[in-house]
Amino acid sequence: MSHISSSEGLNIQGFDPSLTRVYKEVDGHALNLHVFLPPGHTASDRRPAIIFFHGGGWMAGAPSQFFPHCEYLASRGMLAVSAEYRLQKKHGSSPQECVKDGKSAIRWLRAHAPELGIDPKHIIAGGGSAGGHVAAATATLESFNESSDDLSISCKPAALVLFNPVYNNGPTGYGYERVKDYWQAFSPAHNLSAATPPTLVLFGSQDVHVPVQTAEDYKREMEALGRRCDLHFYEGQGHGFFNYTEAQMPYYTATVREMDRFLASLNYLVL
């Protein structure tokens, strides 16, 4: 299977976070959370929050990929965050470090909920492509925790919003050759349980990087466990169809609308 191009984690211009916070320093690298605050937000609020992880095949990409989504959800009353995490091209890291960072980021948000004005019980994780894997991993995988993390703080999100996620890393999924020594513990699709949170999956029907069958199998296995998994296919669309670009704007808008409906159904947004 070919690697997903770093263009899937493209750098979007024109969106400015309200604030940036370092959530982790590791191997000489400071990793940031880019935070978008709702209008009139104060530290005394207890709002739901969502944290996004960008795509780029665990190799590259930029948090700004999800800045448009963050700005939109902040305008709807949520605190929204886009996270940096270690990448192979920038940090020489492996996919394992991506998951460790994702878990650290959610733990940091939960630990700092009082000063950020968020409800620590209502933190949602989202992401696209490899970032979708990171988000799903925080909800499903027991391993791959940073040694410096306080494991008494949960990294489990209350819900998942996934855009063309590479959440099956088995022999028929994505990235198997890179993670084959530990794939069974690393693949969210192989670690589902009755505790896996409600999940929205937005998927291009012509994705050449991620087999469509993996999305259908994931939904079926989630429902067999009695868990909610809303799966929406977008006909004729490829892997990065949901990005905020001129060419993809109709699908950016359509997927954001679906994300809004899903979050409203869980009472994180008001219709």
Automatic annotation (TrEMBL):
UniProt keyword terms in alphabetical order: Hydrolase
Taxonomic classification: Bacteria, Pseudomonadati, Verrucomicrobiota, Opitutia, Puniceicoccales
Family of the protein in this entry: Belongs to the 'GDXG' lipolytic enzyme family.
Protein name (database record): Alpha/beta hydrolase fold domain-containing protein
Pfam families, per the entry: Abhydrolase_3
Record Gene3D superfamilies: alpha/beta hydrolase (3.40.50.1820)
Location of the Alpha/beta hydrolase fold-3 domain: 50-242
Source species, domain of life: Bacteria
GO molecular function, one term: hydrolase activity
